[in-house]
Amino acid sequence: MQDAKLLLVDDDPDVLLAARLLLKRHVSSVDIEKNPEKLPFLLNNNRYDAIVLDMNFQRDVSSGREGFAWLDRILDIDPKARVVLFTAYGDVEMAVRAIKAGAVDFVLKPWQNDKFLDTIRGAVEGRKDDKEDIKKEKNGKEPSDKKPAKQTNIIGSAMRPILDTVEQVAPTDANVLILGENGTGKDLIARAIHDYSDRRDKPFVSVDVGALTESLFESELFGHVKGAFTDARDDRAGRFEEANGGTIFLDEIGNLSPAQQARLLTVLQQRQVTRVGSNKARPIDVRLICATNADINERVAERQFRQDLLYRINTIELHLPPLRERPGDIGPLAEFFLKKYSKQYNRSVSGLSPALLAEMKQYRWPGNVRELQHAVERAVILARPELTPGTLLEPNNFVFKNGATTASPVNETLQLEDMERQLIQQAMQKYRGSITDVAKELGLSRQALYRRLEKFGL
Ligand SMILES: Nc1ncnc2c1ncn2[C@@H]1O[C@H](COP(=O)(O)OP(=O)(O)OP(=O)(O)O)[C@@H](O)[C@H]1O
C-alpha cells in the first residue's frame, strides 16, 4: 500500500495528527481535513484509495447521524469509495449499521496501531480489486446468466423434497398455499415457483395482506377509479391487475378479516376484479400463491377462516419445517451466508468450528433462517482478521444461547437497546416467531417490528 493516497476527516486535530503520523510511515500520501464540508471539493479533485471518516462531528453528540450523512454524500460522489469509519469504543452497533450503509470497515477509537494499519491495508487492497473488476466488466468477461433457483440460493437437504414438488407444480397453474413459521423461506419458495413456471417472464407481485388495513385492502388489491374516495386522485390498477399474466403472492393470508375473505373469494371464483368506484369488471389471468404462519386448519376449525376460501387456495399445500426441526440444514445455511457476506463485506473468514456448529444446533432459532442469516451477517461484520474460525460466531454483542444475551462489558450506553432487543427476543420465542402476534404484544406495527429485527440482527 506504499503508493496509496489517503484522506482522514475528523474534527479533532489531535486525532488527525496522531493518525497521520502513524500512516505516513506506510503510505506516500495522507491528506487531513477538519471540516467535512470540504469533502465534495476534495473528492472531486483527488482520487483517494481510502477515506477515514469520523462518525460524530459535534462535541457531545454520539448519534453518528452526521457521519452517516457524510458517508452517503461520499458514496454519491464516488460509489466505489472505500470509507473506513472512526467509531467510539463500545459503539459496535453503530459500526454494524455503517457497514450495512456502505462503509468498508471501522476503527475503534482509541485505536491499536496494528489493527488500524490492517484495516487501512484491507480498504486499499479492496480498491485495487475494484479496478480489476472494472477492467473485466469493460472486457465483457463477466457471465450474467441467471441459474435456476435450485442451484443458486435455496440451501439445505430438508428443502430438497419441497423443491421437487415445486418443480412438478410450477408449470401447472395450480394454486399453492405455503405454510411455515416466519423466516422459514415461504417468500423464497413462492418466487421459485414463479421462476420455474412459464410465467417467469411476467410479473411476480408480492403483497403482505396482513399489513393492509380494512380501508386499504380493496383499493390496494383491486384498484380504484378517480374520485372513489377522498385520496383517489387518479385511476389506479390494483395488485391483481399488475400481476396479470404472472403470479400474485399473498403473504399472511391467515390474518384476513371475514369481510376481506369474502371479497377475495368472490374475485377468485369469478377470476375478475372490479376497481373500487367502478362497475366494470376486468378479467384477470394470475397464478395465485398464498402463505401464512398461522395454523390455518385450526383457524378454520375456530371459524375464523372460511373453509371454502381455504379449498380455493390450497390446491397444493407445501409445509416448510422450522429450522430447529432440520438441524442438518444449519451448517450448510451458515456456510452459505458466511460466504455471501464475507464477499459482500470484503471480509476474509473461514468455516465454522464443530463446537460452534453443535451449539448452533442446540439453539431454537425462533426467527428461523432469517435469524440465522442475520446472525451470520453480524458475525462477519464484527469478526476481526485475528479471530480463529472457532470464535467467529461468538463476539460479545452476539446472541446465541436460548434467549440469553452475552453482555458486552463496555456497553452501558446501549443498555436500553439491549433491553429492547431482549423484549423482542422473548416475544419472538413466546409467539414462535409470529410477526403479527409479536407486533401486537409489543404495540408496534409489523413494519416497525421488521425494522427492529433487522437492526438487532434477529
Ligand atoms: N433454504 C434457504 N436457503 C437460503 N436462504 C434462505 C432459505 N430459507 C430462507 N432463506 C432466507 O431467509 C430469509 C427469510 O426467508 P423468507 O422471507 O422467504 O421467509 P418467510 O417464511 O417468507 O418469512 P415471513 O413469514 O416473515 O414473511 C430470506 O432472506 C431468505 O432468502
List the helices and strands and how they pair.
Blueprint: E1 5-9, H1 13-24, E2 29-33, H2 39-45, E3 50-54, H3 65-77, E4 83-88, H4 92-100, E5 105-109, H5 113-139, H6 149-152, H7 160-169, E6 176-179, H8 186-196, E7 204-208, H9 214-222, E8 223-224, E9 236-237, H10 239-242, E10 247-251, H11 258-270, E11 272-274, E12 281-283, E13 287-292, H12 296-301, H13 307-313, E14 316-319, H14 330-344, H15 354-362, H16 368-382, H17 415-430, H18 435-442, H19 446-456
Parallel strand pairs: 1-2, 1-3, 3-4, 4-5, 6-13, 6-14, 7-10, 10-13
Antiparallel strand pairs: 8-9, 11-12
This protein binds adenosine-5'-triphosphate.
Residues 153-156, 159, 180, 182-188, 251, 293, 333, 369-370, 373, 435 line the site of adenosine-5'-triphosphate.
General description of the model:
Residues 128-148 have a biased composition (Basic and acidic residues). GO terms for molecular function: ATP binding; sequence-specific DNA binding. Residues 5-124 form the Response regulatory domain. The protein is built from 19 helices and 14 strands. The chain is of the alpha/beta class and 458 residues long. The chain has three domains: 5-139, 3-Layer(aba) Sandwich (Rossmann fold), CATH 3.40.50; 150-321, 3-Layer(aba) Sandwich (Rossmann fold); 324-456, Helicase, Ruva Protein, domain 3 (Orthogonal Bundle). The protein has a five-stranded parallel sheet, with helices on both faces. Strands 7-10-13-6-14 form a five-stranded parallel sheet. Strands 8-9 form a two-stranded antiparallel sheet. The two termini are 38 Å apart.
